[in-house]
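Entry:
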Amino acid sequence: MNSATIRTMLAATSFAVLSACGGGSTENGASVSNQSNQLLGGTVSSDEGSPLVSSAVRQVMGGTTATAAMTPYAASRFLAQATFGPTEATIKNMVASGPAIWITDQFGKVPGSYLAYMDQHVAAGGVLSQSQFHEMFWKQAVTGNDQLRQRLTLALSEIFVISMDDPNIAERLRGVGSYYDMLANNAFGNFRTLLQSVALHPMMGVYMSHLRNQKESATRLPDENFAREVMQLMTIGLYKLNQDGSQQLVNGKPVDTYTHDDIVGLSKVFTGWSFSGPDKNGNRFMGTIKDAAWEVTPMQNYPAFHSTSERKFLGVTISGATTGEADLKVALDTLFNHPNVGPFIGKQLIQRLVTSNPSPAYISRVAAAFNNNGAGVRGDMKALIRAVLLDPEAQGSSGAATEKVREPFVRIANWMRAFNVTSTSGRYLLTALDDPINGLGQAPMRSPSVFNFFRPGYTPPNTAISEAGEVAPEMQIMSEPTSIGYVNYMQNAVAYGVGTGFDIKPNYANELALVATPEQLVERVNLLLLNGSMSATLRSQMLTALNSIVQPTPTSSNADLVAKFKNYRVNMAVYLAMVSPEYIVQK
């Protein structure tokens, strides 16, 4: 089947992402879920009216009947939120264990190290480039057993942003690897520790220009960048919030969380921090002398360059000649204990994993878990993650709509995992994909600014979304060029693979076994990609497209032709699902 025919089939899916994200309900195709099928390598049957109901489902696998905690669809849906995408194996495991046990197990998984991967590349005679970061990212996203940590690390990297798009960061790749490792290592710890690790990482110091930040003088003021952004983007936001994320109002207007005077006062705290090393002389502070490991070692404070004038911020005053370390503790404790942090950070994690528009009650429950993990501990990331993912609104049992646009690199990772890709080289040679025409318009750790690829409060203008007073953050990077670029990219990806020399190739063996029964093929794609949310309309369109690919009758001489047409049918099923608005909008 040629590309023109594929594009013709695509037209039937009405690639209109705005309308899909902003509009009403769709049929869930539950009638198909009530049929016994072979999607998980055994007979799976369910009598639930909806495939998303988290209740028992009867499984018959290898002659054994068991009662499980979730339906396969519910398991797939949860894995779409908590990982880089479901696989046949992870759906089976989730059905058997349920999400709470799975989360606890994930907390014990040890992450791979980006820095170690880079150092191994160099030790083998290679030259570092951004490609090594991307190789490790895709390898972890596809094969890592610490899926929850990897998914959360990506979310954190979009809040605590540094970017290889900045040439000052791009030339310090070991530092980038170290920074991503730092986020991963703190993902299941305490937010206060994470905040300090971010503040003192030399790559954040370079990116936010508070490395080598000097105290004020007659001709110089301290750099204000990090002081501003650590408040605005990383902890408390612009306006005072109630626990449910709503803005506190005075005379009908929102109340600022900080003023420029607070930025000035806090900027003094972040003076004197610079390169790590065995001494604290001026040459080392300025970088004339550098320790070999400075890119991966937390910054240290140099008393000679640290402000001792009055430091006032957020209602706190520090006077006199205290140490830089003591000032930092006061500043970060003040930010950490601000009542905004729970709803501000909690809502963003909900948006990255579950839904763009969580209800106030959902945000409040998540913020409450941040404020107190049940044992009097504030900032427990494990409690926060459990609250985000196990909430009834996230589980789909509250009746509330949960929709978000899947980020481009999450879509491609989902496809890789769903269809068991393998890397010919073993290195996952997929480089930056942020070219909107020839790539996906997005690449990890290549945000165009400290504001991430998109802002959490972005709403596309003149749409049903904006009219409803809702947001769709990921749509800030969606446009006609990026949408067309994605469609074109996936056309080649589905058929041939991705990466340098198509290094990463899918394995459609399970799907090819279903080509003679298009209904089961569509249902398998529905399970692995759409998490059971496929509408009757899309199902009908896909079946029409698949049935139009007439399979030749096998003879003794046409085996290659038969195989080719089987591949056409599988490629069409996967492709139409991947580019459909129903897939792009995670529900």
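The CA atoms of residues 114 and 177 lie 5 Å apart.
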